[in-house]
């Protein structure tokens, strides 16, 4: 029987060199950036979640690539590295689905779920050695999160759209009538009116320049608070 020292070393063997360590740290760093942005935004899947997912995905892919070197035999045993990557995609899909919730008629968590999926993809890219692609997608993430939102707001302010707002107001002062009249004057359609058990009402409004509605409605006498409910706040 061969002595255990003749076996491949525990450290520094195939797939455990400086390149793989760099790939893990790239996955760690890039997904930590995404997680930090989510953390600053106060989202549920923040710094720790995104970094763990991305780094673990990179490790799993490295295992898929290099973890079977000691059992491979030329012409006899063949391993397909893509099989583990496919399982990562399926597993992260279930994790993302668990983040998405439906509350008070609106969907929450879509962006966070997508960011978790993205972190896994970045980790997989880093783990497979595609470092430039991993860095590029990380840059794209911040372009999407930081750049698209102002653009979307500008477009929504000029084009027709819809918003959902929570309005709290003083009773007995005809505030609801004033709210409806203000919407009618600007040709905003009231798609939904719902009483909130915690107080106030939920309004779904649509029309041109609808993003100015919260500011305008907040100026009505008797309105004590108004808050826009994002369709995808996470």
Task: List the defining traits of the structure above.
53% helix, 4-stranded antiparallel sheet, 234 residues, Alpha-Beta Plaits, elongated, disordered N terminus
Contiguous low-pLDDT stretches (5 residues minimum) are 1-6
User: Whole-number average pLDDT?
Assistant: 76
General form: elongated
Strand order of the largest sheet: 4-5-3-6
Which quaternary structure do these chains form? single chain
Structural class: alpha+beta
Percentage of helical residues? 40-55%
Q: Tell me the series of helices and strands, N- to C-terminal.
A: HHHEEHHEHEEHE
Q: What's the β-strand tally?
A: 6
| Number of distinct helices | 7
Total number of domains: 2
Q: What's the Cα radius of gyration?
A: 26 Å
Distance between the termini: 58 Å
State the major sheet.
4 strands, antiparallel
What percent strand? 15-25%
Keywords: Cell membrane, Membrane, Transmembrane, Transmembrane helix
Family: Belongs to the MgtC/SapB family.
Organism: Mycolicibacterium hodleri
Transmembrane segments: 20-36, 45-64, 84-102
């Amino acid at each position: 029987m061969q002595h255990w020292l003749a076996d491949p070393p525990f450290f520094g063997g195939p797939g455990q060199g400086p390149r793989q360590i760099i790939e893990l740290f790239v996955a760690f760093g890039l997904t930590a950036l995404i997680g930090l942005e989510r953390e600053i935004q106060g989202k549920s899947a923040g710094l720790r979640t995104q970094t763990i997912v991305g780094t673990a995905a990179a490790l799993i892919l490295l295992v898929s690539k290099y973890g079977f070197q000691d059992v491979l035999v030329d012409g006899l045993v063949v391993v397909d590295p893509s099989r583990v990557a496919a399982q990562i995609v399926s597993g992260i899909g279930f994790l993302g689905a668990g983040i998405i919730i439906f509350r008070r008629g609106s969907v929450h968590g879509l962006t966070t779920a997508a960011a978790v999926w993205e972190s896994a993809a970045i980790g997989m890219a880093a783990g497979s050695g595609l470092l430039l692609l991993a860095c590029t997608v990380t840059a794209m993430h911040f372009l999407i999160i930081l750049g698209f939102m102002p653009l979307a707001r500008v477009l929504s302010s000029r084009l027709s759209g819809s918003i959902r707002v929570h309005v709290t107001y003083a009773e007995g002062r005809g505030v609801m009538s004033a709210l409806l009249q203000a919407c009618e004057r600007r040709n905003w359609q009231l798609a939904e009116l719902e009483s909130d058990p915690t107080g106030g009402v939920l309004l779904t409004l649509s029309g041109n320049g609808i993003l100015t509605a919260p500011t305008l409605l907040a100026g009505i006498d008797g309105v004590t608070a108004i808050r826009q409910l994002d369709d995808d706040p996470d």
